[in-house]
Amino acid sequence: MTRAALWLGLAFLWLPVLLLAGFGFSASREPFEWGGFSLRWFAALAANERLLEAAWLSLRVAFAAATLATLAGGALGWVLARHGRFRGRALFGALAGAPLVLPEVVSGLALLLVLVALQSLAGWPVQRGAGTVLLAHAALGAAYAAVVVQGRVAALDPRLEEAAMGLGASPWAAWRTVTLPLLAPGLAAAWLLAFVLSLDDVVLASFVSGPGGTTLPVWLFSQLRLGLTPQANALAVVTLALAAAAVGVILLLRRRRG
């Protein structure tokens, strides 16, 4: 019974994805109509400069946003896990975790209002584009990174650092040689989570993007108004192939380490 439920759950999750990928090899002009095997839509995908620009922008924004989110969220998680109780800790933790529970529509509208206020009240020349999308994604990812890093820091044994300092290491050397390597898996998980969140986001980017700031999910969402083409199916195949390659590399590295 348990195994049957597992297979039903996997089928529910993966059959639509595999069906979408299968239609990427169809020669038909209709997105969900089989017209014989063909690679024409992959060639059209490679020639679509607008889509390629949006994909390249999404990757750059996701990389930068994940890095900023990991740095900011790592600092937040460290403070919440290591500094015990202090005045305003509850408010600090609530503000740090607010993006986790707020609908993205609310967060996107709030960020848009901040940008408008900076332009109209403070007179700052804030132009909506790739930079504002990057900051919005970093703010969202920082909340998730803080949770991941906080859990990892809470699981670390502080006596390891104390032992290193007892053997003559300075606090910075103990943190760099003992704590940071133990914290690295949590930081890597936080970075990957923030990267995926940025790469997948539509709502926040729709609010704060502008000319030159159209990411790939926003571009795909805008195509719904005009009607999707089978290029979207071909893009799904490419995305699945890249994700499978990344998972394969991770498993290979783990096997070598094991």
Largest beta-sheet details: none
What is the helix content? over 70%
Structural class: mainly alpha
CATH class of the domain at 57-214: Mainly Alpha
What is the general shape?
globular
- State the CATH topology of the domain at 57-214: MetI-like fold
- According to DSSP, the number of beta strands is 0
What oligomerization state is this entry in?
Answer: single chain
Mean pLDDT: 82
- The radius of gyration is 22 Å
Return the CATH architecture of the domain at 57-214. Orthogonal Bundle
CATH homologous superfamily assignment of the domain at 57-214: MetI-like
How many DSSP helices? Answer: 11
Taken as a percent bin, the fraction of beta residues is under 5%
Task: Summarize the helix and strand pattern as letters.
Answer: HHHHHHHHHHH
The end-to-end distance, rounded to whole angstroms, is 33 Å
| Uncertain spans | none
Explained architecture:
- With 258 residues, the chain is mostly helical.
- It is built from eleven helices and no strands.
- The chain has a domain of 158 residues: Orthogonal Bundle (MetI-like fold).
- Helix content is 78%, strand content 0%.
- Helix 1 packs across helix 11 and helix 3 packs across helix 8.
- The mean pLDDT is 82.
Short structural summary:
This protein is mostly helical and 258 residues long. Helices cover 78% and strands 0% of the residues. The longest helix has 34 residues, at 49-82.
